[in-house]
Specification:
Blueprint lengths: L1 E2 L4 E4 L4 E11 L6 E9 L8 E6 L6 E6 L8 E2 H15 L6 H14 L11 H6 L1 E2 L1 H8 L1
Antiparallel strand pairs: 1-2, 2-6, 3-4, 4-5, 5-6, 7-8
Helix pairs in contact: 2-4
Length: 142
Amino acid sequence: MINFSLATTKADRDESKEFLAITMVPKEGDSVLYGMRAMLSRKSTPGNPIVQVISNLGGKREFFNVEVNKVDPANASRIEIFALCSYADKHNGGSIFGNFHSFKMHEKLVRKTDFTDLDEAAVWEEFKLEKLNWMELCEEVL
């Protein structure tokens, strides 16, 4: 396993048991959007919820386990926020499109109003690795 952060590790296989959500991510230099699924992991427990994000980017399946309790919204990648929001939506109820969609809309609004220097839509590497302060980003919108 490869650790991306305290919250995220790359897994060797599919450990999913329950569908939570889906989002779309572009591949750099490609106009095609690829689906990412958030699935509750078979290893998940009520005290340690684990969401497995599954990518099929460019036909290559990859699996990432995100320990929801370890996600820091003030320093989290999009994959971590996607997992956190997907879990929260399933267990606490979310907006009609889901909380991750709301976060993405906040990010777009911040970019369009030049509050920060965020790049255009997140490509796969940025989705996995780039850390953002989602709390601050939302405060700038509100």
